[in-house]
Design a protein that fits this description.
- This protein is of the alpha+beta class.
- It has nine helices and four strands, in the order H-H-H-H-H-H-E-E-E-E-H-H-H.
- Strands 1-2-3-4 form a four-stranded antiparallel sheet.
- Helix 3 packs across helix 4.
- The protein is elongated and about 125 Å long.
Amino acid sequence: MVSSVSSNQVNNLTPVSQTNSVNTTSNVDNSNSSFSNLLVKQDSELLKKPNIKELMDISGINFDDASSILYGVVGSNEDTRDWNKILTSSDVLKTAKEETNLMYNKAVDETNPYQSTLEMETGENPVKKHQDIQEGNFRYLQTSRAKEDVKLEAVSDKIYLAASNGTLLRYAGDTAEEVYDNIDAFGFSYEPLKALAAKETIPNSVKQLLNETIEYANKKNKTTNTSIEKQTLQTNTTVAASSHDLLSSLPNVVNNNLTNALELVSSNDKKDDKKEDEEQ
């Protein structure tokens, strides 16, 4: 479902505050005192949304990531993410992004708090909407507003991140890196960018930004996958080397144990012989 948009939301949209997000993997340490305190505080209830310090202590992620995932991607919307699932995950940041994606893409029904009620502004100088196209979580809006002083219409071409029902969440950005970082913060898929870039009616300048973002994302993901492969290879090599060292040391261990055993038997035999001589 695609909704209309007011002039203020089109031209000065900041419904969700922007916080840069760094792609960081985090692990939960259940022995961490803050995490233990949070468990005690919640007792038998499901874990609730933590504050920034608690999330940083629990997961080890940095301030920017914690701020972004707690508040930046939510803004004034209701946070319906499963924080019990997030905080008990082995990768808190990754799971939080997955939950954010789910929150904005759940089925639209009477219980969904993200149903769009935005409408075009009316009045003496209304915003005119010329194009409104959504693919996945990306919504392209082309609007114009009359400028009476110069007798011209100012045209705006912008890409926004949007919920599945069209609710605008954040202006996507002006560069490929900005768009990439914003998409990553919400945990959205990049694939729909390709379908949006293929639309014939979208201006070339917007298509260029979309294609540059796709290319940037591919390079970024390739670098990440290469890094993971190298880490895996290094880990496997280390394990193999340790296994080889262990196997190499086994003969010495066996020989040493056998020698010690023979010496113990010999010592016991000598003690028995000495005891028998004394008894005689």
